[in-house]
Amino acid sequence: MSLENASKRLSYFLRHCAEPRYIDLNGGWASVDTMLQLLNLTREELDHIVAEDSKKRYSYDASGTRIRANQGHSIPGVELNMEKPEPPEYLYHGTATRFLDAIMQEGLKPMSRQWVHISPDFATAVKVAKRHGKPVVLEIRARQFVADGHELYRSENGVWQAKAVAPEYFVVREL
Fold first, then answer.
1. Among 7-21, 39-53, 84-98, where is mean pLDDT lowest?
2. CATH fold of 90-174, please?
């Protein structure tokens, strides 16, 4: 199996496995040894996947014996310990134009995930949007969102997250 395929399978086990028997819901941690067995990898190969992942999807605990996905879980009940710093003035969400009508009516919702993922910069949001079709970026008034009593969190890899974002907090930036 290629390391790219191993990374996709790792993502599945840590983020989306329908029977998350490998995952501790408190923090989303899984045993490194278990993942090595499931993926038929060496520790060096797993270290390479973690270190080279462009989105920094994975992290080890302080002991190096557990691994988790930093965000993107669809497994119910996974609770990550995320930071809650003061957000910048604006954050960004990349999507496809085909979803825009529903988003403008209902706002941003996590859909099959637990959180709405929000990019820290416009360029990252554009990259995300391009994966889904004709891209569009929503510029979110993050400080106003928090000032109005909503919560924003930041995961270990810098992705911001919210339970939902109403349309009143964003404007569409078509590309």
1. 7-21
2. ADP-ribosylation fold (3.20.170)
